[in-house]
């Protein structure tokens, strides 16, 4: 049986081609993909990778997908055929690779440990926005910062404490805000004024204009002084410097990108710990602690049903898998704001 897949054939070369439908092995399910979300990492790999991450061609990119379970691998009891699921398309150490798991195709296999059932109050598009960004947010809070986990008795554990999340309307930022609130934090965030209401709807108590010249002073006023934790979901030089400015001595800063030299020097001078996420390689090379925490993924359905977690707003790009060029270009040009771009592989002609 064959399907249509967006094959990344070599550095800078990608096209929609016929490709075999992957079969699930033990611990995996086969999924008919109804929605595949874009991430900045997708175009960055396409544009910049030259053997650093991708070792074997062709593969299928795409870290986030949602769809319907069509086959069960041996021993799988957690899901049944017909279940609506979303999953992280992350190759695992057991040898299942990105060609089988990548989200930019009509069928893929999903590791049941990093797959969750989509609740009745959510659709495929919204659910597809969670896996990569949600995992990154969870990793920032519970692996990098080492906070008590809300899925293991830590819900509300940090009531009365404050956290700053820079870039609260971004996909990673929006999930970081919500998980921090679930953990009990009062969250102060930044965004453009157009997204203030959205970020507040996620639970942030205060949202400050990211471009305000006195943003640091406003954050410090809202927090009542320097804070212990900042998660910078943008991680460009200006946001890193802002983060250091509002952190207390010996505070902790989580970055999604590499540390800016000026920000690092300022952080070192005040014994601020800079904690780096693993970046693009996390999707294609190895499994992080949050990838492997099955109880994290098992909690998503209930959180959404309770209304304590909201999936991203989405924008659907027409053309099925052939929408990839538009999606990559929109991200390259910085024209994605406050929404997750999604395409529908089954609509590919």
UniProtKB/TrEMBL annotation:
Residues 2-343 form the Enoyl reductase (ER) domain. One of its GO terms (molecular function) is oxidoreductase activity, acting on NAD(P)H. InterPro entries: ADH-like_C, ADH-like_N, ER, GroES-like_sf, NAD(P)-bd_dom_sf, Trans-enoyl_RdTase-like. Transmembrane segments: none annotated. It comes from the Eukaryota. It holds the Pfam family ADH_N. This is Chaperonin 10-like protein.
